[in-house]
Amino acid sequence: MKPTSRWIPYFLVAPALLIFSIAILGPILATFGLSLTDWDGFSTPSFVGFENFTHAFADKIYMNSYWHAGVYIAVTLVLEVAVGLLLAGLVSSKRNTTFYRVAFFTPVMLPLVVISVLWSFILNPDLGILNRLLGQLGLESWQHIWLGDQSTALISLSVISGWIFAGFYMAIFYAGFQRIPSSIIESARLDGASEWQLLRGIKIPMVKNLTEVAVLICFTGGIQVFDLVYVLTNGGPYETTQVPTTYLVRVVFRDQQMGYGSALAVILTLVVVAVGLVYNKVRTKGDAVVEY
Amino acid sequence: MKRNPVFHIAMAMYSLIYFVPLLWMAMSSLKSNEEIAMDPLSLPTTWDFSVFAEAFTAGGLDKYAINSAIVTGTCTSAVLLFGSMAAFAFTRLNFRFSKQLMALITLGLILPLQSYFIAQNALFDSLGIKDTRMALILPYTAMGLPLAIWLFRAYIQNLPKEIFEAARVDGASDLQVYKTILVPMLKPGIATVAVFTMLGAWNEFLLALVYIQNDDLKTIPTGLLSFSTRYSTNYHLLFAALTIVTIPMIILYVIFNRRVIEGLTEGAIK
């Protein structure tokens, strides 16, 4: 429609655009600028060209942090997206499953910091219940200092993440399954299809686009993971759980290297944007899936 | 579909993975340090709830909760108001640069927090708003707006165009249309957007950690973290604090679970 007065649309979009520009857009441009400087946060930034970037690609801790994020993403793709899909299949196969859906989704509601502190107790070698339960089941050899041991710390973090977010992906897939016309499901049931065949043959293919979204969310969320790692290990032991964000915060706020930190932030941003672009290229467009 | 006890038994067993940690947390808050360490899986021997009052007042949980409520309330109101205004203009009115401005906002959907928080920190430093609530309200509002506008736009596109045109024929100005027609019709969308904006602001940690050092202004996530350093050996008090933060969220969630799940999944599905 043509607006009733010329200035009305601008008046309507101005507050949102202003806030967005001040808090996000401006700082993004400034961060890109800062990435070309050497700056301690107080003195005048001095221009150093792409030095920070060459430094970053030679920075073993930073490069390894992507490897750690990759492991974390690989594990969480299974424990969050795949398990979420399976749970959605289970809770959509029967009536009266509200209770399970509420239960599985609960951790998504809670602040990650709260959950992280709770898990630091569960995994605590002295008073944590995990080792205690393993002991009572006669599995003493399985007991570990889960977060203090280089071989288990990263996996432990990924498993905790799975505990938190499997319910989130379940909810997405469940919502998708609910939109599949019930006539399709019912006629497949009449033809004698088992619930497992229904899930594999009909439900999963029909929410293919949701699966792609879920993988994207899991990927971009995983590469930005911060709260959980910061509270539970803060990169340790011996940098084995250092992820891009925790290292970034350390460089900026402990080492006061704003310029170098900005370069690390720019690299992370480009990785996330590249993933988004690739997703846009490869995602399924067409009519074989449920439309939303 | 027949009733299947095996299914429900298996699902109930699996639910234990979620219930045991939370129950253990609640139980431990009522136990002494010795009991927690010696016998972590037992029920408390006494049911003394004063530990919760202690965590609240002595531990300062009350002020963290108030701060979280102020920050969350303010930025959610701002996101709902400014987001619906902008979405209305982008969806129903023609104006120059409409497409470009919308594309700019859409950028905010994919850009990670890390891409701007270093310069944002420097900006807030020079504006002198670090260690004020504004340092959280401003970025949380900005972070909530892109998805809010995006979702509102989807909702408005589903409303019949004729309603807006009819109001126009009756002589209503665009601002009147927004107030008297759009906002009432947008209610389900408003609830959905409110849920995820609130959860995002309530749970945000990184910016709160960087911008707020003053303990009197900390929100629940950072407040709880400093609580846990302060009382690092007072286990039952810590468990009490975790329980206090957790239980209202679970109650609210059980009451509003349909709305909450819709709010959090809508963004992915749309």
Overview of this protein structure:
The complex is a heterodimer of chains A (292) and B (270). Helices cover 70% and strands 1% of the residues of chain A. The model of chain A has no long low-confidence stretch (mean pLDDT 87). The longest helix of chain A is centred in the first third of the chain and has 33 residues, at 60-92. By secondary structure, chain A is mostly helical. The two termini of chain A are 25 Å apart. Chain A has a domain at 67-242: Orthogonal Bundle (MetI-like fold). The longest helix of chain B is centred in the last third of the chain and has 35 residues, at 235-269. Chain B has helices at residues 5-28, 33-38, 50-57, 61-92, 98-110, 117-127, 134-158, 161-169, 174-185, 187-203, 206-211, 220-230, 235-269. With 270 residues, chain B is mainly alpha-helical. Chain B has a single domain (51-269), classed as MetI-like (MetI-like fold, Orthogonal Bundle).
Topology summary:
The complex is a heterodimer of chains A (292) and B (270).
Chain A: H1 8-34, E1 37-38, E2 46-47, H2 51-58, H3 60-92, H4 98-109, H5 112-122, H6 129-136, H7 153-178, H8 182-190, H9 195-206, H10 208-223, H11 227-232, H12 244-254, H13 258-282
Antiparallel strand pairs in A: 1-2
Helix pairs in contact in A: 1-13, 2-13, 3-7, 3-10, 4-7, 8-9, 10-13, 12-13
Chain B: H1 5-28, H2 33-38, H3 50-57, H4 61-92, H5 98-110, H6 117-127, H7 134-158, H8 161-169, H9 174-185, H10 187-203, H11 206-211, H12 220-230, H13 235-269
